[in-house]
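re: that chain from earlier
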Amino acid sequence: MRLSMPLLHYGVFSLFFAPFPATGFYLPGVVPTSYKEGSTVPLNVNRLTPMESDTDTQARSAVSFGYYHPGFHFCKPEGGPKDVGPESLGAVIFGDRIKTSPFELHMMKNETCKRLCDEVELDMRSATFINRRIRENVGHNWLIDGLPAGQPYRISDNDNGPLYYTRGFPLGRYKDEQHQVLHNHFDLVIDYNAVGAGDYRVVGVRVDPSSRANSKNLDDKTADCGDEGMPLSLNEKGATSVTWTYSVYWKPSPVAWAIRWDAYLHADDPKIHWFSLVYTTAIVVFLTVTVSAILMRALKKDFARYNRLESFNLDDFSTSAVTEDGVQEDSGWKLVHGDVFRPPKNPLLLSIFLGNGAQLFFMTGITIVFALFGFLSPSNRGSLGTAMIVLYCMFAGIGGYVSARVYKAFGGENWKRNIAITPVMVPAIVFGTFFLLNLFLWVQGSSGAVPFTTMLVLVAIWFLISLPLSFGGSWLGFKQAVSLQ
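^ sequence. v structure.
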């Protein structure tokens, strides 16, 4: 049986596009990772950051610390911790410092009371450092298959309400300035979803930390996890022994991999979104009606005066008559044209800020569009910051064009200064402020401090992308004629 050429082409075309709908997956995130039963699931650790507690929602610190900061004495993997990456530019700027950890997790293998490392001895200085971090509500940030390990909570008092997860969990807990306890045991409950024959994916991570002073390591490389009845308090006037232990429990879940972030982002909580939309809409409508009423009240009298001109005879329409009747051609709100068409005192500065404002406007708009299509997923860490920086530099041509057109419309003559300052002034102010604040983080030893090499990368991006595009846009703006008709 012979096939005609059109039918053969149609068959090849169908075979080429047929697999794509079958293999479609969550658009914004990374390709999902499937694990076999017993395969290793890595647990990575990120920086420790201040977080809100159940009893205290006040932010007590803005400084984050690397997980392996020498003051914490956390257990390290064999061979030392390694960077997990490479990290994106946005992730580095926002302070992500993801490292490997000594935790050993195996898919669908429950393990109870495992030792993490040898017993750690904390001196007085380390105890004081950790207790201060506990009072500042500093919390862990662990990642398992890209998902943050957190604690469950419900917004409503209804036990059947949706369950959400926090991003991170506290380093310890405290009652007052004199009573702090350190969490040294961690119960990890990991939700998984079966996606095929022997393939499983992580869809949820929960951590239940506890403080146990009577836990200890045994001679056979195991551990006795003790109990929660004796919390571990660090002695700031002497040495304190700390034993780090953990347990792992796997639990099947019907949650699909594509919606596993909903529990962290409150994606299925319509109350907050609807309340915000209704509240914003009500404010906009109220302000619109108020301004319209005031404007109409102010203009009605002027409209009535102008309409009375029709009752005048042309012979009687003289300046004195109109003035005596209270009708003037330029009166009231019409006098505003004198300010609208008056050039500003500093057209160069105004044009520079307008150009950078247009650049920011387009950057914000395209970023929102990308976010709506799902390309800036939280599973792709740092994607938002990277997109904002790259788009801002890419739209530098628009900023230069708008600045040049506005400056030329105002009759500006120093076009060289406009071209040179437009791409430099606002970025220099922002970068200078950013560098100054970063110095404080460097002095505090915070992991949130941006490395000097990353700052050089930012300067290189600005010099190689933003600067030439801005010059080109300004040249195009000055080249075109300006018409104010």
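The radius of gyration is 32 Å.
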